[in-house]
Specification:
The complex is a heterotrimer of chains A (338), B (267) and C (253).
Chain A lengths: L1 H22 L14 E6 L6 H8 L9 E6 L3 H9 L5 E5 H9 L5 E5 L2 E3 L3 E6 L12 E4 L4 H12 L9 E4 L5 H6 L5 E5 L2 H7 L3 E6 L4 H6 L6 E6 H6 L1 H20 L1 H12 L3 H9 L1 E3 L2 H8 L4 H15 L20
Parallel strand pairs in A: 1-2, 1-3, 7-8, 7-9
Antiparallel strand pairs in A: 3-11, 4-11, 5-12, 6-9, 6-10
Helix pairs in contact in A: 2-10, 2-11, 4-14, 10-11, 11-12
Chain B lengths: L7 E12 L6 E12 L3 E5 L6 H9 L6 E6 L2 E2 L7 E4 L11 H11 L4 H14 L15 H14 L4 E5 L7 H18 L2 E6 L2 H7 L2 E5 L6 E6 L8 H4 L2 H26 L1
Parallel strand pairs in B: 3-8, 3-9, 6-7, 7-8
Antiparallel strand pairs in B: 1-2, 1-4, 4-5, 9-10
Chain C lengths: L2 H27 L11 H13 L2 H33 L1 H14 L8 H8 L3 H25 L3 H9 L4 H35 L8 H10 L3 H29 L5
The chains are: A alpha/beta (338), B alpha/beta (267), C mainly alpha (253).
Chain lengths: 338, 267, 253
């Protein structure tokens, strides 16, 4: 329902953006006109999509002569599937999906940045009686399979030497179904991310057992179990270099705005997330935004982030989620990294 | 006839049967009365559509009369009664049961123990000459064999009256003759009261102790003839003057009724 | 049909299958199609071997088969007596008709939210989805089969002293059985579609889960393998069903 509503609002907005463009052309700041004025972006209400939403709402793309169409997808896998099928041009995705698609040998997309680092808006939430991770033994832990939370859980269990197959029951559940399942006592704990993560924490009797800061790669590389990754359809990037560059410029201007003007950003973001202003500000406080200037160090030759991604891929192989680890550095679009 | 006692087995008293229908109600039987004595073999002859089958269905209790009543041993027939065993033209054997199980059916419904009913059924299967076919399913049998199973099934249930609704009409001439002879033998041996429906005058003359001719719709009794032909009714009897006389007499009555019903249809 | 002819026809079917697989394999090897969209048969086969080696393929198949069988058998056990009862009673048919008509158009997936609330994330919830998806259609098949019984046979049975209950057990049930079994065979296929939808939510094993999880990881070969396994399992259960049918319906041979 919600994603449908978003879909129509985004189309409407894109249309207004284009209407404005025809009236007031030539306000483009950067060198080179866009070869294509519309960019189709795949998003959701997740934090990784905040910059694009802010960029659209605050006219940061419009002033570069671009209309951005925000299409909602509930899961990263659906978004990535649509991207490589040619229905989307740019997207932000959880890196698990991106790594899985690399492992499937698909060369149709490239990565060009990582907008945020979050570690405290995703984690394992448990009912009162479970005090420590070790208490999960013999209990029911809900986690959406094939997600960053799944990876976090596999890693945490490995750290305390619990076998996910034998020592406890993992229940495959989507995050939006977790509040009801926790309330009914169906499950003893769950692994979720914001905004459901915040909702679950607020429920009486629930408390945080572990978050992404306890993830083993976070300790070494400041890398969560499913860091956000900006991806572009390879054909799009090659065919429309100016459009791509202008999009990146607008995007990181929005990131700067999120850092410098959090309140103004939150005011437009509540339309995306349906959170209260207060909750929205709280979520944003937990996110560390990564500016355009920092991207090169993370992404290129191969940067710290890419090294971390490679380790994440190997972790997925070890836990039999994918067959073989791809060489992540082969999927980096150096031209587009700001 | 020495086999007849003078006890009335079935008494049909002023029976009228109307079938309601949307266009116009159909009166199948009108004020029909008939007594059948114990041990009698009554054959009812009539043009098609004269209500013969309706009458038999009323006797078996499959249907109830609009007016009048039917008594079996002085008791009114209300609802289906196993005392009047029906043999249908289409055999009505249970296709999923073997010959043995078909014949045992009535006994099983009486909750007779397995061993006993097996033995009794075997006797009747033997009687109709189907020994060796106990394990066969009906679908592997010829029409004549199926009708013999049906007769054995009815006899095994030991009804007071056996009703036969044109039982041999679907059989070829040779098979029909064999079955007719077999039925006469069974009748002579078991002394059952039989009501038999046919449109064949020859069949009526060969089998009956009394022949009842029915009118065209609405069905009433037109004529009753005591069949005094000697037994066995072999070729000589069938060529005798008395046979011809009876046949002519029945034929004249039936023909007139057939003409009437044809006229009615063409109106 | 003579045996020579039927073995010839079987040969034609095999050749056709081999030809199709070979064309598919070649098409993929020539690189006309991205493996993400359609992997080659050899890729699916190697995925199958890999999953057979770690027993996961068998585990998923058995999990789904168990769910289908439990849901389907329970639904049949309820639907057969109830359907025979409704098929032979016009009064009770009229009583239940509105509910049957209301339940009939509901796809089994629409029961997922309610079943999760009522039964939780349990196997019973999975069984209930299969049950809800197959019960009403089975019931309708059985009612129809019951109505198709030759009334003459019911008459004959009553004439031989059978009570109403005897008629149901001795005449209607066996008489309707060939049609009931034909209906149940169709229902078994429907039960499989139900189990796949049941496994889309809150499942961690089963062929439906395998397909959805394969989709999450862009393992199209796993997705196709799951689909192939459904077909193969349905084919095998169909064969078993046919054996069973022959023993149950000896008179139709």
């Amino acid at each position: 329902m919600r994603s449908r509503k978003l879909y129509w609002t985004s189309i409407l907005m894109a249309l207004t953006a284009m209407a404005v463009l025809t009236v007031a052309p030539g306000t483009v700041a950067a060198a080179g006109k866009p070869e294509k004025v519309t960019v189709v972006y795949g998003g959701s209400s997740w934090i990784g999509h905040y910059p694009v939403w802010v960029g659209i709402e605050k006219g940061l793309f419009k002033k570069r002569g671009l209309g951005v169409l925000f299409q909602s997808f509930y899961a990263s896998s659906g978004r990535m599937g649509s991207l490589v099928a040619g229905d989307l041009d740019v997207a932000c995705t959880g890196s698990i999906s991106a790594i899985a698609l690399m492992a499937a040998g698909n060369k149709g997309f490239m990565a060009f940045g990582t907008p945020d680092s979050y570690a405290t808006v995703e984690g394992v939430i448990a009912r009162e009686k479970i005090k420590r991770l070790e208490d999960l033994k013999g209990k029911k832990l809900a986690v959406p399979f094939a997600s960053s939370a799944h990876v976090l859980v596999l890693d945490l269990l490995e750290q305390i030497r619990l076998d996910p197959e034998k020592d406890l029951t993992l229940v495959n559940l989507q995050v939006n179904e977790m509040p009801a399942a926790m309330a009914s006592g169906e499950i003893d704990a769950c692994a979720a991310w914001t905004p459901n993560f915040n909702m679950l924490l607020k429920m009486p009797g629930n408390h945080l057992l572990a978050d992404d800061t306890q993830f083993s790669l976070y300790k070494k590389y400041q890398l969560g179990p499913g860091p956000d990754l900006l991806v572009v359809r390879k054909e799009f990037a090659e065919k429309y270099p100016n459009t791509s560059r202008l999009f990146v410029e607008g995007y990181f201007e929005a990131v700067d705005m999120l850092i410098n003007q959090p309140k103004e950003s939150a005011e437009v973001l509540v339309k995306l997330t349906n959170l209260s202003m207060e909750d929205q500000m709280a979520v944003q406080k937990d996110i560390k935004w990564i500016r355009g200037a920092e991207q090169k160090a993370l992404m290129l030759q191969p940067g710290q982030f890419v090294k971390g991604m490679q380790l994440l891929a190997e972790f997925l192989v070890k836990h039999k989620q994918i067959d073989a680890a791809p060489a992540v550095k082969d999927w980096i679009a150096a031209d587009m990294v700001p | 006839m020495d086999t007849l006692t003078n006890k009335i087995k079935i008494s049909i008293q002023g029976v009228t049967k109307v079938f309601p229908s949307k266009r116009a109600d159909v009166m199948a039987l009108k004020n029909l009365s008939l007594d059948v004595m114990d041990g009698e073999f009554v054959v009812i002859v009539g043009a098609s559509g004269c209500g013969k089958t309706t009458l038999l269905n009323l006797v078996a209790g499959f249907d109830s009369a609009s007016q009048g009543q039917i008594l079996l041993d002085g008791q009114p027939v209300i609802g289906i009664t196993p005392e009047c065993g029906m043999i249908f033209q289409q055999y009505a054997l249970f296709p999923w049961k073997t010959v043995q199980d078909n014949v045992e059916f009535g006994l099983k419904m009486k909750r007779i123990p397995k061993a006993e009913r097996q033995e009794q059924a075997a006797r009747f299967i033997d009687m109709v000459g189907l020994k060796g076919f106990e394990k066969s399913f009906p679908h592997h049998l010829s029409g004549g064999m199926k009708q013999r199973v049906s007769i054995a099934r009815s006899l095994a249930n030991d009804p007071k009256v056996i009703l036969l609704d044109e039982p041999f009409a679907a059989l070829d001439a040779m098979t029909r003759q064999v079955l007719q002879e077999q039925l006469v033998r069974i009748y002579e041996k078991h002394q059952k009261t039989i009501i038999f429906i046919t449109h064949s005058i020859d069949e009526a003359l060969l089998l009956s102790t009394r022949i009842v001719v029915m009118t065209a719709r609405p069905g009433r009794i037109l004529q009753e003839i005591v069949n005094d032909l000697p037994h066995p009714r072999n070729a000589d009897v069938q060529l005798s003057d008395r046979y011809m006389e009876l046949k002519r007499m029945i034929w004249v009555s039936v023909q007139a009724e057939v003409m009437k019903s044809i006229e009615e249809e063409t109106v | 049909m003579n045996t020579k002819n039927s073995s010839n026809l079987a040969l034609i079917s095999i050749v056709s299958l081999v030809f199709f697989l070979a064309a598919w394999e070649i098409y993929c090897r020539m690189g006309f199609i991205e493996p993400l969209f359609m992997p080659a048969p050899s890729k699916i086969l190697s995925r199958a071997i890999k999953m057979l080696n770690n027993w996961s393929l068998l585990g998923h198949t058995l999990a789904s088969t168990r769910r289908v069988m439990v849901g389907f058998i329970v639904s049949s056990l309820v639907a057969i007596p109830f359907g025979i009862f409704l098929g032979s009673s016009r009064f009770f048919m009229a009583v239940f008709d509105p509910f049957i008509s209301l339940l009939r158009p509901l796809p089994s997936m629409s029961w997922i939210p309610l079943s999760l609330l009522w039964l939780g994330i349990t196997e019973t919830q999975k069984y209930s989805i299969v049950f809800m998806g197959s019960f009403v259609p089975s019931l309708l098949y059985i009612i129809e089969a019951t109505k198709n019984i030759d009334p003459l046979l019911i008459r004959a049975a009553r004439n031989l002293g059978a009570s109403e209950v005897d008629v149901m057990r001795e005449v209607i049930l066996p008489g309707a059985l060939p049609q009931i079994i034909a209906g149940l065979k169709v229902m078994l296929g429907i039960a499989w579609t139900c189990v796949i939808s049941a496994e889309l939510v809150a499942a961690r094993e089963g062929l439906g889960f395998m397909i959805m999880n394969g989709k999450e990881y862009f393992q199209t070969d796993t997705v196709l393998l799951g689909m192939v396994m459904i077909s193969v399992t349905v084919m095998i259960t169909d064969l078993v069903f046919r054996k069973f049918e022959k023993r149950l319906l000896p008179w139709t041979l």
